[in-house]
């Protein structure tokens, strides 16, 4: 009997030990995004970092962490044992002012998802992922820095988020409440797209029943029937790429009977690294365009646009360093957008200086050959900005 009790006690002891080990392992918490960042690139006292010129092109490979997503590997992080967060890897390959490839590929007027076989016509806007900290500086006084891929960057806190910006104005670290991106590799290039190159790329125009349309038109022409708004000249330092009639792909375009199709006339200006676009448009049914049509604006607030009336301004790109955008509704069913990689006050000034003049008639200057003609891609003839 005693031997039986001994065996039972031994089994119980082993079970307790195993349970204790299991309990101890399961009690190890996942590291936080802040801990993962400190493990990858610890903070250091701030030393002066001399600015260098902004690059015309760059490629950044990031390790991307999502809060709570671990592989179970135990590391020492934040002075404690933690389950290490498991990164995925993303790439941003940017040629300013309009080209980008990575999880999404963009070029002037076109967008393609990573899993998509073909591109589609999209709104003509600056690159949302091309952060511009020098144009939109954070309202803080940094005291710390990090070293990431042998590049020193200054730590900026915006709300509860952190961004680490290097001497070239590149964001090497972006930490929010849910994600963390830390640069693994940075490559600076010298490629750029001039106004002439951008204009040549769209010279033939594009029309496709399943992908939308974008067509160059005479800069002195506009849809008839209502007031048009345009600048008397290119903004100082900028060159006109062209004026385009744009019908971005949407559900309404794919619904052949819908009158919710939105169309616009867009003037595109570039200065090498930066861009300004002026778009005016509307819907076939003259209902108002909203954020579902034009995209959301961060930190939206009212602005005085002079004769146009009260408009709204905000961040059209991603994060605090995304491009700025000004919007207005000059009349029922019509919208006006001035967007660009310049400070908001400059966009407001441009919007206030838009010249109102009667619509004329669209004069196309292209010969589109890419795909079947869309009967309703000429909605810009019917929708006067």
Overview of the structural elements:
The protein has 385 residues and is of the alpha+beta class. It is built from 7 helices and 25 strands. The strands form 5 sheets. The protein has a 9-stranded antiparallel sheet, covered by helices on one side. The chain has a 9-stranded antiparallel sheet with strand order 15-16-18-19-20-24-23-22-21. The chain has a 3-stranded antiparallel sheet with strand order 7-8-9, with no helix packed on it. The radius of gyration is 27 Å and the shape is elongated.
Q: What topology does this entry show?
A:
Layout: H1 2-26, H2 33-40, E1 44-45, E2 57-66, E3 70-77, E4 80-85, E5 88-95, E6 99-102, E7 104-107, E8 110-113, E9 120-121, E10 144-148, E11 151-158, E12 161-166, E13 171-175, E14 179-189, H3 195-201, E15 206-208, E16 212-217, E17 227-230, E18 239-247, H4 251-254, E19 262-270, E20 275-283, H5 291-294, E21 298-304, E22 310-315, E23 324-328, E24 334-340, H6 344-352, E25 355-358, H7 379-382
Antiparallel strand pairs: 1-10, 2-5, 2-14, 3-4, 5-6, 7-8, 8-9, 10-11, 11-12, 12-13, 13-14, 15-16, 16-18, 17-25, 18-19, 19-20, 20-24, 21-22, 22-23, 23-24
